[in-house]
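Lecture notes, unit on binding sites. The following record was shown on slide 14. It pairs a sequence with thymidine-5'-diphosphate.
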Amino acid sequence: MRILVTGGSGFIGSAFLNRYVPNNSQHQFLNIDKLGYASHPLNTAELESLSNYSFARADLASFERVQELVTAFEPDRVFHFAAESHVDRSIRAPLEFVQSNVLGTANLLEACRQIWDGDQQPVFLSVSTDEVFGSLGESGAFSETTPYDPHSPYSASKASADHFCRAYYDTFKLPVKITNCSNNYGPRQFPEKLIPLMILNAMEDKPLPVYGEGLNVRDWLFVDDHCEALWQVAERGRVGETYCIGGGHDVPNIEIVRGITKLMSERRGVASLDHLITFVKDRPGHDFRYAIDSSKLRTELGWKPSCTFEEGLARTMDWYLGNPEWVRQVRSGEYQQWIESHYGVAH
Ligand code: NAD
Ligand code: TYD
């Protein structure tokens, strides 16, 4: 099989490639990524020498470039991860999210439509988020039948991308599958998201900025468990269907932050780091609660998370503590200069 992975140099995409490329030498993998700020070449460094892995720097917002790459590679399977992914950035610069997430997805769908003539049985799996469903009150959970109600520019752009995927299925019978997953955490997540930001700040005695009163609830899933769900959906999930993926660990943010300070104080051998917790101005339009009912995925495909939140958090923290050079490089911006000089500007 020829497997096209977009956004494979980011957090989840690189976890996916590192998990599946080395053990699947019978499949060819192509990673297309624009190498934006949240990605890093170190994320895929261990794959560079493998003959079943290749990389192309490209911006999905350019149809010509996407068409050229898709036509040359002729993928049988697409895992579409590439997106601008941070809600706070979408509030500052919404149009970048339209470019990458809406136009980028539409370009990829169209390029695949042009090469898939009906003789093969390809799969286009689009990796989406539970944020498209909006915000829950004190009870209930999102499922595949929950109506879309996005609130942030990020979630609106992902909802739009999902609608394009469904439109290509309904109109052209493009073999699309969509997954909507809850918040991921794990190694190599850019330290702007809650968990890695808190880990690094707690390591360096910096304030831990908790929005509002820290009562907003997110459901957390270890990144490798998300990747395994994606692989299973591509293999055995039904075409044209949506699958909700969740960890079943939905707790208020303050509890997550306290879990991090506790674990970090043990790692650092200090009594407590709770004094670093700082309540700050809330995010505008902050969704109150996300929770996922993933019973369709669990019953149809037999998937379930392999690790508890406590295990996943310990693995994540130890990864950040054990990779100071990665941390230094992604924070310095130095590597972005190297990227520009090495690859030129993405087009
Ligand atoms: P990330 O920001 O870490 O990585 C995104 C990757 O996409 C980066 O490598 C970036 O360079 C690339 N990219 C962005 N725009 C591009 C473009 N126009 N052309 C080519 N490459 C581009 O994000 P992530 O956390 O790894 O998320 C991956 C996918 O999973 C996204 O689609 C996101 O919406 C979805 N998702 C994320 C979470 C989460 O908690 N992180 C949860 C559910 C779904
Ligand atoms: P985040 O990791 O940005 O993911 P998302 O907004 O996509 O769910 O944020 C997770 C939760 O943590 C969200 O409710 C916002 C909150 N948060 C903070 O309280 N402080 C922070 O510094 C960040 C980045 C997030």
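Take-home: The longest strand covers residues 123-129.
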